[in-house]
Amino acid sequence: MTDGWAPELLLAGVVLLGGCVQWLTGMGFALVAVPGLVLLLGPAQGVVLANCAAGAISAFGLVDGRRAVRLPVMAPLCLAAVITVPAGTWVARQLPEPALLACLGALVTGAVALVMRGLRVPALRGGRGAVVAGGLGGFMNSAAGVGGPPVSLYALNAGWTVREFVPNAQFYGVVVNLVSVTSNGLPRLTAPVWAVAVTALAVGALAGRALTGRVPENRARALVLLLALAGGLSALAKGFAGLT
Q1: What is the pLDDT of residues 67-126, one digit of tens each?
Q2: In this structure, are residues 28 and 22 in contact, taking their beta carbons and an 8 Å threshold?
Q3: How far apart are CA 81 and CA 140, in angstroms?
Q4: How far lies 62's CA from each of 4, 66, 122, 171, 186, in Å?
Q5: CA pair distance 202, 187, nearest whole angstrom
């Protein structure tokens, strides 16, 4: 990040918005915030900050929803994610920054496109579907900070309602982000940047909690996907520009 307050204000806005939609939808932080964070902090630091923030807000949300977690389903899904996290970390460390940025943008853009289409995939059903979704999610989470879309597609194919999805997504978020942070390490940020990020995340969570039940689900979902698509395309364009 460059000197001055403009980058910190942009960072605060990205984290605040991500925290708000994460509370509303159960899994919106990474899609909304990762493209902005990697543009501001670089791919490596942006991804691990997203892991920290998404994991923290999932843990707070799970306090109220822990009784609704479907452990028989989530156990194989989370175990598969834990197994593939190291592979995602390794891949991310092998790529030069422009290539990693382009891959991040492509993953976000592709994930948004699949979720917007509401893709029905037979392989994402039942116990096998939980393992496939978890494995893909763990790899994507540690490599790109975006591990939610495979789990969202699994829930869609399983016919879960939003009320069922949110607590289970939060449980998954706690597990996969904790393992991802363990694998990738904590972000190397200055104390002021940490203060900005933590404050913005807390404000975003409070705003999301206040808006719960007031914002129609379809509008919140559409906003999340549009913001994520714009951010993914921006990261993809910057990555390609760095490669040329």
Answers
A1: 888 888 889 999 999 999 999 899 888 888 788 778 877 877 877 777 777 666 666 677
A2: yes
A3: 9
A4: 36, 5, 29, 7, 22
A5: 18
Query: Which residues, 6 or more positions from 169, have their beta carbon under 8 angstroms from its beta carbon?
Result: 26, 27, 58, 148, 151, 152, 155
Q: Quick one: three-class SS letters along the chain?
A: CCCCCHHHHHHHHHHHHHHHHHHHHCCCHHHHHHHHHHHHHCHHHHHHHHHHHHHHHHHHHHHHHHHHCCHHHHHHHHHHHHHHHHHHHHHHHHCCHHHHHHHHHHHHHHHHHHHHHCCCCHHHCHHHHHHHHHHHHHHHHHHHCCCHHHHHHHHHHHCCCHHHHHHHHHHHHHHHHHHHHHHHCCCCCCHHHHHHHHHHHHHHHHHHHHHCCCCCHHHHHHHHHHHHHHHHHHHHHHHHHHHC
**Side-chain half-sphere exposure of 19, counting CA atoms within 13 A:** 26
> Can you tell me the distance from the alpha carbon of 103 to that of 234, in angstroms, rounded to the nearest whole number?
12
Indicate the residue type of 43.
P
For the record, the structure tokens of 67 come out as 């009784």
Q: Which two tokens mark 116?
A: 């917007």
pTM (global) more than 0.85: no
For tokens 């490669």, the residue is: 243
- Is the pLDDT confidence value at 2 over 60? no
The number of beta carbons lying within 10 Å of the beta carbon of residue 54 is 32
* pLDDT band per the 50, 70, 90 thresholds, residue 130: confident
User: Cα–Cα–Cα angle for 70, 76, 77, nearest 5°?
Assistant: 75
